[in-house]
From TrEMBL:
Gene Ontology cellular-component terms listed: membrane
Keyword Transmembrane helix: yes
Species this chain originates from: Kalanchoe fedtschenkoi
Segments crossing the lipid bilayer: 40-59
InterPro entries reported in the protein's UniProt record: Glyco_trans_17 (IPR006813)
Keywords on record: Membrane, Transmembrane, Transmembrane helix
Organismal lineage: Eukaryota, Viridiplantae, Streptophyta, Embryophyta, Tracheophyta
Keyword Membrane attached: yes
Record's protein name: Uncharacterized protein
GO biological process: N-acetylglucosamine metabolic process
MF term (GO), any: beta-1,4-mannosylglycoprotein 4-beta-N-acetylglucosaminyltransferase activity
């Protein structure tokens, strides 16, 4: 009877507190009543599993988003890839004919235009590769990064290294707007519009060839030579570049396509870094991303370029961590591959395999291998300040 009495007493308490009359009870009593119904497993779930789950989502939300990307974003329209024929002993007339084009009696003028940040070594390799085929080099430099960070005019202080293009160089400087909190792509677009104006000042005319690409997206010299000599080439042609990360030791894939070559049309051609055509010329050069000599240059670019929001934690900028990531061929931002199908995403997960091939790289790089040793296989250690 005593047991029945105690049970009934407890039930009555809960009924009074949590039932019809619960609104008259204290908040603490109501909470105690509610919690009495949970068992040990439920407590473990609330106090251990749920907090770890929340922490895991916070820590890895970017990875989760990228892994699920195939569910919410369709693959872009595939390019029409054009075969690319080249062998150094094959004459230009025959090369043009292999591509279905005629040959010109004289080559088109070529303009190479870039926005410059701090990639002095990559700019040297690029301009040495293209120098025999480019009539005018156009470079615009700002005292602001895309993210609004102040920077010195680095090219101005290093211009003695580029005396070999001095007579063919149109150099411009532009002041940054330093808009705090602004989307970095707005500043990037602002600088690209200014580069359009600089091109006109450089004297570009209709049917001249214009190379649109970042400094580290380097078209091969023979590709530019082909397009300047051949008739009937497309008005806009994207270039498929071999994609490297940190150096030419880590060949990621062949999917770099943002570099393009245009037959200039006044009032129509705009300097841009997005898809402008469905045509892609195969195997047309190299894209070496984050290919810097010094660790400080890595941290600077991570903060400076348009995807700086990928720095989710401050330890990403730790020099020791960056050095370890470089030698492993891992991702600086600890991200999953940016792919649109699960098959491609899973296939590219993990570190980039080491490559020991230094075949078909820019000639200037190989001719100055001692100076650019850090870009060649087996030399992943970078200089520290």
């Amino acid at each position: 009877m005593l047991g029945d009495y105690s049970s009934k007493k407890s039930d009555d308490f809960c009924e009074d507190v949590c039932g019809q009359g619960s609104r008259f009870g204290s908040g603490i009593n109501r909470l105690l009543c509610v919690l009495r119904g949970y068992d040990v497993k439920t407590w473990i779930t609330f106090l251990v599993v749920v907090p770890f789950l929340v922490l895991g989502i916070y820590w890895h939300h970017q990875k989760i988003t990228f892994f699920l990307r195939p569910l919410w974003e369709s693959p872009p329209k595939p390019f029409n890839v054009m075969p690319h024929y080249y062998q150094e002993s094959v004459g230009m007339e025959h090369q043009c004919r292999l591509h279905g084009w005629g040959v010109r009696s004289s080559p088109r003028r070529v303009f190479d235009a870039v926005l410059f940040n701090n990639e002095v070594e990559m700019l040297s390799i690029r301009w040495q590769e293209l120098s025999p085929y480019v009539d005018e080099f156009v470079l615009l430099e700002s005292n602001s990064t895309f993210t609004g960070l102040p920077k010195p005019f680095i090219f101005q202080s290093e211009k003695q290294k580029f005396e070999f293009v001095k007579s063919r160089l149109t150099y411009g400087r532009i002041g940054g707007r330093f808009r705090k909190g602004e989307n970095p792509f707005v500043e990037e677009a602002y600088q690209r519009v200014a580069l359009d104006q600089l091109l006109r000042a450089a004297g570009i005319k209709d049917d001249d060839l214009l190379i649109m690409s970042d400094v580290d997206e380097i078209p091969s010299g023979h590709t530019v030579n082909l397009l300047r000599w051949c008739n009937d080439i497309p008005p806009i042609l994207h270039l498929q570049l071999r994609n490297y990360l940190y150096s030419f030791e880590f060949h990621h894939d062949d999917s770099s396509w943002r570099a393009s070559i245009h037959r200039y049309q006044k009032g129509k051609t705009r300097y841009a870094h997005y898809r402008q055509s469905d045509l892609l010329l195969a195997d047309s050069g190299w894209h070496c991303s984050f290919c810097f000599r010094r660790i400080s240059e890595f941290t600077f670019k991570m903060r400076a370029y348009s995807h700086s929001d990928r720095i989710r934690f401050q330890h990403f900028l730790n020099p020791k961590r960056i050095q370890d990531v470089i030698c492993k061929g891992a991702d600086l931002f600890d991200m999953l591959p940016e792919e649109h199908t699960f098959r491609e995403l899973i296939g590219k997960m993990g570190n980039i395999p080491h490559s020991y091939s230094a075949v078909h790289l820019p000639a200037y790089l190989l001719n100055h291998a001692d100076e650019y040793k850090y870009l060649l296989p087996g030399n992943c250690v970078r200089e520290s300040e």
